[in-house]
Amino acid sequence: MTKHGKKYLETAKKVDQDRLYAPVEAIQLAKDISYTTFDGTVELHLRTGLDPRKSDQQIRGVVRLPYGLGKTMRVLVFAAGEAAQMAQAAGADYIISDDEGINKIMEGWTDFDISIAVPDMMRQVGRLGRVLGRRGLMPTPKTGTVVQPEDLARVIDEAKAGRVEYRLDRTGNIHCPIGKVSFPVEHLQANMASLMDAIRRAKPAGLKGIYIRRVTLAPSMGPGVHVDLPQAMAMESAA
Length: 239
Hints:
Ribulose 1,5 Bisphosphate Carboxylase/Oxygenase; 2 domains; Rossmann fold; four-stranded antiparallel beta sheet; 239 residues; alpha/beta
Protein backbone atom coordinates (compact mmCIF):
# COMPACT_ATOMS: atom_id res chain seq x y z
CA MET A 1 0.00 0.00 0.00
CA THR A 2 1.35 3.41 -0.98
CA LYS A 3 2.14 5.71 1.93
CA HIS A 4 1.33 9.39 1.42
CA GLY A 5 2.77 12.40 3.18
CA LYS A 6 0.97 14.87 5.42
CA LYS A 7 0.35 17.45 2.68
CA TYR A 8 -1.14 14.84 0.38
CA LEU A 9 -3.47 13.55 3.08
CA GLU A 10 -4.58 17.10 3.94
CA THR A 11 -5.45 17.93 0.34
CA ALA A 12 -7.11 14.55 -0.18
CA LYS A 13 -9.76 15.60 2.35
CA LYS A 14 -10.94 18.23 -0.13
CA VAL A 15 -11.76 15.58 -2.75
CA ASP A 16 -14.90 13.45 -2.54
CA GLN A 17 -13.71 10.16 -4.06
CA ASP A 18 -17.29 8.97 -4.43
CA ARG A 19 -18.27 11.96 -6.55
CA LEU A 20 -17.93 12.45 -10.29
CA TYR A 21 -17.15 16.11 -10.89
CA ALA A 22 -18.12 18.17 -13.92
CA PRO A 23 -15.00 19.00 -16.00
CA VAL A 24 -14.86 22.66 -14.92
CA GLU A 25 -15.29 21.73 -11.25
CA ALA A 26 -12.63 19.04 -11.54
CA ILE A 27 -10.17 21.49 -13.12
CA GLN A 28 -10.72 24.06 -10.39
CA LEU A 29 -10.32 21.42 -7.70
CA ALA A 30 -7.12 20.07 -9.29
CA LYS A 31 -5.73 23.61 -9.15
CA ASP A 32 -6.82 24.09 -5.54
CA ILE A 33 -5.28 20.86 -4.23
CA SER A 34 -1.86 21.33 -5.85
CA TYR A 35 0.65 21.80 -3.05
CA THR A 36 3.96 22.09 -4.90
CA THR A 37 6.13 25.14 -4.31
CA PHE A 38 6.67 25.35 -8.08
CA ASP A 39 4.08 25.82 -10.79
CA GLY A 40 2.89 22.26 -11.14
CA THR A 41 1.25 20.57 -14.10
CA VAL A 42 -2.38 19.49 -14.37
CA GLU A 43 -2.52 16.00 -15.87
CA LEU A 44 -5.30 14.07 -17.57
CA HIS A 45 -5.43 10.33 -16.93
CA LEU A 46 -7.70 8.02 -18.88
CA ARG A 47 -8.45 4.40 -18.04
CA THR A 48 -9.47 2.70 -21.27
CA GLY A 49 -11.09 -0.55 -22.28
CA LEU A 50 -8.47 -1.08 -24.97
CA ASP A 51 -6.17 -4.10 -25.03
CA PRO A 52 -2.60 -2.82 -25.55
CA ARG A 53 -1.57 -6.31 -26.74
CA LYS A 54 -3.71 -5.94 -29.87
CA SER A 55 -2.17 -3.93 -32.69
CA ASP A 56 -5.56 -2.71 -33.93
CA GLN A 57 -6.29 -1.18 -30.53
CA GLN A 58 -3.09 0.81 -30.23
CA ILE A 59 -3.95 4.49 -30.39
CA ARG A 60 -1.40 7.27 -30.67
CA GLY A 61 -1.53 10.80 -31.94
CA VAL A 62 -0.73 14.43 -31.35
CA VAL A 63 -2.84 17.45 -30.45
CA ARG A 64 -2.00 21.12 -30.61
CA LEU A 65 -3.36 22.57 -27.39
CA PRO A 66 -4.88 26.03 -27.90
CA TYR A 67 -3.14 27.46 -24.82
CA GLY A 68 0.03 25.36 -24.90
CA LEU A 69 1.67 23.68 -21.93
CA GLY A 70 3.21 26.67 -20.23
CA LYS A 71 6.76 25.50 -20.84
CA THR A 72 9.49 26.14 -23.36
CA MET A 73 9.65 23.12 -25.64
CA ARG A 74 13.18 22.16 -26.73
CA VAL A 75 13.04 20.86 -30.29
CA LEU A 76 15.68 18.64 -31.85
CA VAL A 77 15.70 18.03 -35.60
CA PHE A 78 17.53 15.25 -37.44
CA ALA A 79 18.43 16.80 -40.76
CA ALA A 80 21.43 17.51 -42.96
CA GLY A 81 22.35 19.95 -45.70
CA GLU A 82 19.61 22.28 -46.87
CA ALA A 83 17.04 20.65 -44.56
CA ALA A 84 19.28 21.43 -41.57
CA GLN A 85 19.46 25.05 -42.66
CA MET A 86 15.67 25.16 -42.93
CA ALA A 87 15.35 23.67 -39.43
CA GLN A 88 17.74 26.24 -38.01
CA ALA A 89 15.86 29.09 -39.67
CA ALA A 90 12.59 27.73 -38.26
CA GLY A 91 13.90 27.88 -34.69
CA ALA A 92 15.05 24.34 -33.90
CA ASP A 93 17.03 24.26 -30.64
CA TYR A 94 19.29 21.38 -31.70
CA ILE A 95 20.16 19.91 -35.09
CA ILE A 96 21.82 16.54 -35.56
CA SER A 97 23.16 15.74 -38.99
CA ASP A 98 25.98 13.24 -38.47
CA ASP A 99 27.20 10.23 -36.52
CA GLU A 100 28.75 12.41 -33.84
CA GLY A 101 25.32 13.65 -32.80
CA ILE A 102 23.77 10.19 -33.10
CA ASN A 103 26.48 8.76 -30.84
CA LYS A 104 25.91 11.51 -28.29
CA ILE A 105 22.28 10.39 -27.93
CA MET A 106 23.30 6.73 -27.83
CA GLU A 107 25.45 7.65 -24.85
CA GLY A 108 22.39 9.00 -23.05
CA TRP A 109 21.94 12.66 -23.97
CA THR A 110 18.23 13.48 -24.21
CA ASP A 111 17.95 17.12 -23.11
CA PHE A 112 15.08 17.90 -25.47
CA ASP A 113 11.30 17.57 -25.39
CA ILE A 114 10.49 16.52 -28.95
CA SER A 115 12.47 15.25 -31.91
CA ILE A 116 11.63 15.65 -35.58
CA ALA A 117 13.32 13.99 -38.53
CA VAL A 118 13.32 14.25 -42.30
CA PRO A 119 12.94 10.89 -44.10
CA ASP A 120 16.54 10.86 -45.37
CA MET A 121 17.78 10.70 -41.76
CA MET A 122 15.60 7.84 -40.53
CA ARG A 123 18.17 5.17 -41.32
CA GLN A 124 20.57 6.76 -38.83
CA VAL A 125 17.80 7.67 -36.39
CA GLY A 126 16.63 4.05 -36.35
CA ARG A 127 19.71 3.18 -34.32
CA LEU A 128 18.31 5.30 -31.49
CA GLY A 129 15.09 3.33 -31.00
CA ARG A 130 16.16 1.83 -27.68
CA VAL A 131 17.15 5.22 -26.23
CA LEU A 132 14.40 7.43 -27.64
CA GLY A 133 11.56 4.92 -27.83
CA ARG A 134 11.20 4.33 -24.09
CA ARG A 135 11.27 8.09 -23.49
CA GLY A 136 8.59 8.80 -26.08
CA LEU A 137 11.05 10.86 -28.12
CA MET A 138 11.39 8.71 -31.24
CA PRO A 139 10.31 10.43 -34.47
CA THR A 140 7.54 8.53 -36.20
CA PRO A 141 5.10 9.16 -39.04
CA LYS A 142 2.22 8.25 -36.71
CA THR A 143 2.79 11.39 -34.65
CA GLY A 144 3.72 13.60 -37.57
CA THR A 145 7.34 13.92 -36.51
CA VAL A 146 8.85 12.46 -39.68
CA VAL A 147 8.25 15.18 -42.24
CA GLN A 148 9.48 16.50 -45.54
CA PRO A 149 11.91 19.45 -45.33
CA GLU A 150 9.28 21.90 -46.58
CA ASP A 151 7.08 20.99 -43.56
CA LEU A 152 9.76 21.53 -40.94
CA ALA A 153 8.85 25.14 -40.20
CA ARG A 154 5.20 24.27 -39.55
CA VAL A 155 5.95 21.26 -37.34
CA ILE A 156 8.62 23.09 -35.34
CA ASP A 157 6.20 25.97 -34.79
CA GLU A 158 3.48 23.56 -33.63
CA ALA A 159 5.89 21.82 -31.26
CA LYS A 160 6.89 25.08 -29.62
CA ALA A 161 3.28 26.27 -29.42
CA GLY A 162 2.12 23.33 -27.30
CA ARG A 163 1.95 20.10 -29.23
CA VAL A 164 1.23 17.14 -26.95
CA GLU A 165 1.34 13.44 -27.78
CA TYR A 166 -1.12 10.90 -26.43
CA ARG A 167 -0.53 7.17 -26.55
CA LEU A 168 -1.84 3.99 -24.97
CA ASP A 169 0.57 2.56 -22.43
CA ARG A 170 1.16 -1.07 -21.49
CA THR A 171 -1.56 -1.00 -18.86
CA GLY A 172 -4.25 0.38 -21.16
CA ASN A 173 -4.02 3.92 -19.80
CA ILE A 174 -3.37 7.31 -21.37
CA HIS A 175 -1.58 10.08 -19.47
CA CYS A 176 -1.21 13.63 -20.79
CA PRO A 177 -0.48 17.10 -19.41
CA ILE A 178 -3.03 19.79 -20.20
CA GLY A 179 -1.23 22.83 -18.79
CA LYS A 180 0.07 24.47 -15.65
CA VAL A 181 -1.71 24.94 -12.32
CA SER A 182 -1.34 28.70 -12.83
CA PHE A 183 -3.43 28.60 -16.04
CA PRO A 184 -6.93 30.08 -15.82
CA VAL A 185 -9.65 27.43 -15.57
CA GLU A 186 -10.97 28.32 -19.02
CA HIS A 187 -7.55 27.73 -20.61
CA LEU A 188 -7.21 24.32 -19.00
CA GLN A 189 -10.78 23.55 -20.02
CA ALA A 190 -10.03 24.43 -23.66
CA ASN A 191 -6.86 22.32 -23.63
CA MET A 192 -8.68 19.38 -22.07
CA ALA A 193 -11.50 19.70 -24.62
CA SER A 194 -9.01 19.57 -27.51
CA LEU A 195 -7.37 16.47 -26.09
CA MET A 196 -10.64 14.69 -25.31
CA ASP A 197 -11.97 15.51 -28.77
CA ALA A 198 -8.88 14.01 -30.42
CA ILE A 199 -8.96 10.87 -28.28
CA ARG A 200 -12.66 10.38 -28.91
CA ARG A 201 -12.05 10.59 -32.66
CA ALA A 202 -9.19 8.07 -32.36
CA LYS A 203 -11.48 5.28 -31.16
CA PRO A 204 -10.56 2.08 -33.05
CA ALA A 205 -13.28 1.20 -35.55
CA GLY A 206 -13.28 -2.47 -34.57
CA LEU A 207 -13.46 -1.99 -30.81
CA LYS A 208 -16.25 -3.92 -29.11
CA GLY A 209 -17.03 -2.84 -25.60
CA ILE A 210 -16.26 0.23 -23.52
CA TYR A 211 -13.70 2.69 -24.95
CA ILE A 212 -13.06 5.03 -22.01
CA ARG A 213 -13.78 3.70 -18.51
CA ARG A 214 -12.58 6.52 -16.27
CA VAL A 215 -11.38 10.11 -16.58
CA THR A 216 -9.25 11.62 -13.81
CA LEU A 217 -7.53 14.98 -13.39
CA ALA A 218 -4.63 15.48 -10.98
CA PRO A 219 -1.92 18.02 -10.26
CA SER A 220 1.75 16.98 -10.38
CA MET A 221 1.57 16.25 -6.68
CA GLY A 222 -1.84 15.62 -5.18
CA PRO A 223 -4.80 13.26 -5.31
CA GLY A 224 -6.82 12.52 -8.42
CA VAL A 225 -10.22 14.03 -9.11
CA HIS A 226 -12.70 11.76 -10.91
CA VAL A 227 -14.51 13.47 -13.78
CA ASP A 228 -18.03 12.72 -14.93
CA LEU A 229 -17.43 10.45 -17.92
CA PRO A 230 -20.33 11.49 -20.20
CA GLN A 231 -19.52 15.18 -19.70
CA ALA A 232 -15.82 14.62 -20.38
CA MET A 233 -16.53 12.62 -23.53
CA ALA A 234 -18.87 15.35 -24.78
CA MET A 235 -16.17 18.05 -24.59
CA GLU A 236 -15.40 19.49 -28.01
CA SER A 237 -12.47 21.49 -29.26
CA ALA A 238 -13.21 25.02 -30.35
CA ALA A 239 -10.74 24.59 -33.20
